[in-house]
Model the fold of this input.
Amino acid sequence: MAHSYKQLRKALLPLPEPRSPEAKEWRQAVTPARQHQRFTRLTTNQERYERMGELQKRGVPQQEIARQLGVTVRTLQNWNKRGACPGSTQRRRRRSIFDLYAPSVLSHWQQGHRDVTLLFQEIQAQGYPGKIRTVYRFIQTLKQNPAQFPALSVLDRVSVQEAVWLIARPFEDLKADERVDLEELCQASPTLSILHTLVQSFGRLVRKREGHRLEDWKKQVRESGLPEMQSFVKGLERDREAVLAGLTESYSNGMTEGFVNKLKLIKRQCYGRASFPLLRQRVLHAL
Done:
């Protein structure tokens, strides 16, 4: 899932520029102090980059260059790979974690709610993980110009962990909005669509104890071409008999595992303070 999200984010289009001068994207303009700080940092990096080039022409080792410039060797490697001064290229405008909650804050603001703390608590209850200063910046932007919100994709609404549960849970147990998110994810990535089919099939196999379908499911995994799922299948094959029994029989070794855990707890409580006879007595009295 994490690999698929990484690929989807790479293919995600950057945020569009505002369509008109009056419509301002919600992020507040950079303050003069922040702008001065950024300019100073760019100047320092430019001097370091030029100094790096001079030292490399003289044949100075990378470790010595890194020591003189006060950076790491990894930083020098990244600068050489980029082939330009760090920070000189324009960064891609990224989506913010606040984008999902900005319409809610705007709606309350238009209704006359002016208490920023209450607005922050409102979106915090909805799951907003950020800081209140972002809300202050947004309100400051609203006071200056109308805000423009970028269109949110399913990647902005659903985290990787939430997507895992959408894939793993039985489809009939999902709510209507969760089904919409799942369908959008599957449409955005054919890999996730295949993964969802395989996971749902394996879930039915486990819940209904249909061990006789295990070989057919393994065949589907091999044909899917998903390396992570094929690695999972290899793990199943290493303990095939136990897996097949677990997917077929109604028996469980849960009680045995519970006693094993109890024995380990008693043993660790005695560590370094007693010998085997005391351990034996404690185990016998605990049974």
Summary: The CA atoms of residues 176 and 263 lie 46 Å apart. The first helix runs from residue 2 to 11.
